Each structure stands twice: as structure tokens, then as C-alpha cells.
Amino acid sequence: MSADLKSSLEYQAHLRKVPVASILDAAVRDWLERNNADSTTDAAKRRLHTAAARCFGAFAGGDTRRAETAAQAIRRRLREGKRQFRVLPLIRP
Predict the structure, then answer these.
(1) Backbone dihedral region of 57: left (phi > 0), alpha (psi from -120 to 50 degrees) or beta?
(2) Which residues contact 4 (CB under 8 A, 6 or more apart)?
(3) pTM of the predicted model, to two decimals?
(4) In the chain, where are the structural domains located?
């Protein structure tokens, strides 16, 4: 704590005829109450994380190179004509 701040604190305590500790307690209590809004944000984050955790995981499959070979697999399936594909629109920002 700087000397100026300590001096001001002691002066205010003297004016109010209270110990410096009681002023510090009140200041800390007020600060904690003002900053307690983060706890509701944290609770919301925990709820979102819990909901999202149900989707965590990996796709099962034997092809470890699926991403690398996806274009070839799609072309092969189209040539074979045995499967139907859904076409999903791509939306870019």
C-alpha cells in the first residue's frame, strides 16, 4: 500500500472514530459483492460445459486417414452409384 493511500485511510478512520481494519473490511466486502456477478457467469459456463460434454468424443471407425482420403472416397461412391448423398448447403461468413 502506498504511503499516501495509507495516510488517507488512517485519516478517514480517525474522522469516523473507527479502526482502520473496519474500513478495510467494509471496502473488501463491497468489492466482493460488486464482483460476485462473475459467479453467475461461472455457473452459466459450467452448465454450458456440462451440456456440451455429452457431445465430446471421437468418431469410431477403422480408417485413420479418413480426412485425407475423403475426396477419393466420395468420388468412388459417386462412380459406384450405390449410395445416395445428402447435399448440405455451405454457408460462409
Answers:
(1) left
(2) none
(3) 0.39
(4) 1-36
